[in-house]
Amino acid sequence: MKKGQILEGVVEYVEFPNKGILYVDGSRVAVKDVLEGQKIRFAVKKARKDRGEGRLLEVLEPSPKETAIPLCKSFGSCGGCLFQTLPYKEQLAMKEAQVKTLLDSVCGEYEFSGIKGSPKPWEYRNKMEFSFGDEYKDGPLALGLHKKGSFYDIVTTDQCKIVDKDYHLVLSLVLQHFADLGISYYKKLSHIGVLRYLLVRRSEKKGELLIALVTASEEAAERTEITDSKIKRLQEQLELKDLVEKLQGLPLNGEMKGILHIVYDGLADVVKSDRTLLLYGQDYFTEELLGLSFKITPFSFFQTNSLGAEVLYSIAREFVGETKDKVVFDLYSGTGTIAQILAPVALRVVGVEIVGEAVEAARINAKQNGLENCEFVAGDVLKVLDELEEKPDIIVLDPPREGVHPKALEKIIGYGVERIVYISCKPTSLVRDLEVLKEKGYCVEKGVAVDMFPWAGHVEVACCLQRKDS
After folding, report:
1. Using CB atoms within 10 A as the burial measure, which of 72, 244, 357, 433 is most buried?
2. Closest C-alpha to 128, from 91, 85, 157
3. Distance CA 253, CA 290 (A)
4. What percentage of the chain exceeds 70 in pLDDT?
5. Which residues are catalytic?
6. What percent of the chain has pLDDT over 90?
7. DSSP for 74-129?
8. Minimal CA–CA distance to 362: which of 325, 388, 332?
9. Is the whole model's pTM more than 0.85, yes or no?
10. Gyration radius of the chain over CA positions
């Protein structure tokens, strides 16, 4: 096996995340975005003595498990969904096996409760960030998700099946509006252009929509200060007043709560804000989880599957157990969802979150939910733990994908609490942190997976850990 060589083989099994394993002349080869049982053609990217990595070129024969007909017209070209040819039951079985293999490698004896499916496999997402671009170089304006395997090309996903039909109406209208005007999209290499993203958020329980158009401030590679007069000229050029009127006239299932114009001139390919301007209504919407109400702004962290979040947080509440007269630390607390779900049955809950806007939203949410025993602190967990005088009885962790910072994990272990509940959106990061916790005297009692992302490769995992000497 040599780098650049074109080979064929049958995928024997799939490891998390979406890493198919096959063997060629005794060498183990990993190829992403394939299914067990598929016969594939691939190009060798890396070659070692007994292992290698490949890039998928073509699926020659489907897996025997692929019996579903894709519902989305963009499936295959869009990089969003991976498994629409796989029945949902088979997806759950695959993810459950992957998670169990990872946890078994580090946990020893523990209770694994399998995987909980999403209450809604379709139309489950409450947030989408659509990118402006083109499907091929110098092609017509497109608005949607990245083409599979491409950093630049965009597929117009106006019939995406993992979101409500309100998203389709909004996307199609916005795309047509700017296509008619001949407005250019922002080009990542030259940093020239205007249109960057369309952010749409929608509450599952109430159907409220929040829409944000993200643009650069001008069509120039050289950025200057963003002034009010410059933004006004840009909005006139984009005919945003007319766009707002068109959006208000859409026959939506839900209710339009707010439309915003976000101006961002940074070079990073992310949705951020230098200036945010309200074009209509309000700059937030509300969602309900487990009987509580949450105010969500454009940049608030909130689980993208609201009904799945209720399943996940119900499990977390069960794992936390008895909280009467106890202090709970909710670290990486986001908008304070877990903290507020635990607050009614705890003495006190302290949430720590690095995103200031999310902390402010958490405080507002706690107030409107009538919870007076919640405190939310803005800052990096690594630093904030040194500043808190209070000591926890129980700790809940829900870190970002990279897991807990090693030094922060040391401080968390230093509290010596009897119970830790760890929620992870990346099982491989979870396993790395569990190894450290196990070395420092904790054992995993229970583990469960929750499928928050049907048709994609991601999965959430919740673990309940107990101190061995408690």
Report:
1. 433
2. 157
3. 23
4. 99
5. 425
6. 85
7. TBTTBSS-S-TTS-HHHHHHHHHHHHHHHHHHHH-S-EEEEEEPPS-SSS-BSEEE
8. 332
9. yes
10. 24
